[in-house]
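User: I'm putting together a small comparison set for a docking exercise, and I want a reference complex before I start. The sequence is below, and the ligand is zinc ion. Could you produce the 3D structure with the ligand included, as structure tokens?
Assistant: Of course. I'll restate your input first, then give the structure tokens for the complex.
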Amino acid sequence: MRVTRCPRCRAEDIAADAHPARVLNNGAEARLFVCRGCYRPTELEYRIGCETTGASYRPLPIREALAGLHEFYVARLAECEDPNLLVEDDERAARSAPIRAALADVDRRLAIGPVGDRDT
Ligand SMILES: [Zn+2]
């Protein structure tokens, strides 16, 4: 079964527990999703990178972060439910359930409207 590895530590499967972070790529902001453990260090590195290069740092707006997560989980779910993927139905269900739950949580938070600055 396909696993979506955290691009930073390459250990955690982030398919159902991703955290939006950013990196500086040739001085430009690039978005990526990392695992829970990598979220803070990645964002801190981004912040330090901004300060080093004189770019202005701004926190990732929560709704942008949630919208990105929504797309990420929808894509993971589509991968999971791809009929060309040869897995047993129960394995498919077991794999997609946590992604579905994570997507529902993101959508619930998006639906609430403006929310405070919480970590995602
Ligand atoms: Zn990680």
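The longest strand covers residues 19-25. Residues 6, 8-9, 12, 34-35, 37-38 surround zinc ion (CB under 6 Å).
User: Thanks, that's exactly what I needed.
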